[in-house]
Amino acid sequence: MNPLDGLELTESFLVVAEELNFRRSAERLNVDQSALTRRIQKLEAILGFALFERTTREVSLTPAGRTFYQENTTLLHTFLRSVSAARLVAEGKTGSLRVAYMTFAAPDLMPRAVAQYRARYPHIDVGLSYIRTQGQKLALARDEIDVGYMIGPFEHSEYHSVVLRSDPLFVVTPRDHRLAHAEAIAPSELDGEEMILGDLNEWEAYRWQVDRLLAGEGVNLRIGLEASNTLALAGLVGAGLGITICPQSLVGYLGPNVAVRPIDNAEFRIETILVWKRTNRTKAVGHFVEIAKRSGLQRN
User: Fold this and answer.
1) Which of 59, 165, 217, 238 has the CA that lies 20 to 30 A from 5?
2) What's the sign of the alpha-carbon dihedral 104, 108, 109, 114?
3) Mean pLDDT of the chain, nearest integer
4) pLDDT the model gives residue 287
5) Interval 85-125: pLDDT, tens
6) Cis previous bond, 111, omega within 30
7) Which range of residues forms the domain containing residue 236?
8) Same structural domain, 41 and 180
9) Together in a domain, 83 and 59
10) What is the 3-state secondary structure (H, E, C) of 160-184?
11) What CA–CA distances, in Å, run from 260 to 113, 228, 240, 256?
């Protein structure tokens, strides 16, 4: 028997069991009374036992019919709840969303998008994970996250990506450093300077971009120290141990002991992108992507 046929027969039975009247039941179901009678007869034939006792004056449930009614009422309510829950997931109104982010998205892009998303879809459980760019690519491939804020560019046939921000890069120096007195700093002025950069474990993608940009200008990096986070980098620079390069999105978090100057070269920028699998077409991901794109435009 087709499951949908079985559902129709069972629904018809439940209505008749509640009304104990075939005419009223047929009106509720919007079918002919004769068609409803055939449905009940078909269901009884499939089950192999009578569900109703019929006389010319009344309809009543058999003992087996009462048990069948009680059990199916519970099953139908469970079924309807499961359909409703599944529909909400399909429509992106409930469920879960796993978002990964790296340092440059943490101050504003990610929090602003998450805040707007949760306000609009409060029943979606949003999980956040701090993961560096390379780690996010692996996590996406393993379906451990749904979307990731990472350093671009990233072009791959299995993934969508969208640029949310192209951040200009700044030179960060001690307040008494010679470069702190310039309005803007040419890349060539960084040649020979003692550099403090993020370590490769955490800053691999960013380091690769900085290396590429400086090499294109003929600047050789002279790395004196490495640190794993922005606060440590700012602290080491403020202590006079060298200079560093950071994107505009982090400038406001460097503290008062450093000087920040723009790099006089429009090519010195870093992209923050949002990436998700092409095969992930869930409404929850689609809704988040649209909100993330709009919130990125608000900043730019």
Assistant:
1) 59
2) positive
3) 90
4) 93
5) 666 666 666 589 999 999 999 999 999 999 999 999 998 99
6) no
7) 164-270
8) no
9) yes
10) EEEEEEEEEEEEEEECCCHHHHCCC
11) 28, 20, 14, 10
Q: Which residues of 243-258 are buried (b: 16+ CB within 10 A; e: fewer)?
A: bbbbbbbbbeebeeeb
Mind listing the pLDDT tens digit for each residue in 236-247? 999 999 999 999
Q: What is the pLDDT of residues 138-171, one digit of tens each?
A: 999 999 999 999 999 999 999 999 999 999 999 9
Tokens of 34: 């004769």
Prediction pTM value: 0.70
Same domain, 172 and 156: no
The domain tally of the chain equals 3
Contact 195, 224 (CB under 8 A): yes
Domain end call among 58, 90, 122: 90
- Domain holding 244: CATH number? 3.40.190.10
Query: Contact 246/171 with Cβ under 8 angstroms?
Result: no
Alpha carbons 134 and 67: distance in angstroms, whole number: 59
